[in-house]
Amino acid sequence: MLGPSASDDRPGAAVRQLGLRSLAARTRRAIVDLGCGVGVDTEAIARSTGAHVIGIDRDRASLARAARAPGVRYLCADPLRLPLATATVDGVYSFGLLERLASDGNEPIRAVIREIRRTLRDEGVAILATVADFRHRGAGRRSLTGAEVSQAVRGSLKLHELIGLVDRGRDGAIARHWYIHALPGPAGSAGRDGA
Length: 195
What we know:
This protein is α/β, with parallel strands linked by helices. It has one domain: Rossmann fold (3-Layer(aba) Sandwich). Helix content is 28%, strand content 30%. The protein is built from 6 helices and 7 strands; from the N terminus they run H-E-H-E-H-E-E-H-H-E-H-E-E. The longest helix has 13 residues. It is globular. 43% of the residues are buried. The N terminus and C terminus are likely disordered.
């Protein structure tokens, strides 16, 4: 099983499954779950890939509630200034962080994409997902258009796939998400050196 649980009825379950399958399809040693919250997906990543997973979130209260699991550790850190050395991770997974950063405009999104690129090895992969539902606007989050996603990754990552997914939870609620599968740009590209 690749997902958080067989009965995952949270909005975005389909996009989570796609992301976890993409990570599991490659051999990984170290994966970051960026904006991990209480670590539900962090555990699933460790279980499905066998990699060492670092869950990073800036909310200490969420991290305190995160379940401890083999191969998982948690760090409290700002996603715009990751406490990781350059080119040290094989994969970055993030579900829901981009829409929270977008509430402050597009520059925080570009900044986190540059940090993702900086920490990824050249053969790494970034699997990102964000809400794409313009009907519901919540405090502290903003849906991104496909053009905004493409623009945010340009210069730091190569967009491999950008898929809009519609998903229905067990409660019948419809969720719309962007699934973003990106690869590092060429060695020395913008983002690796912080340019």
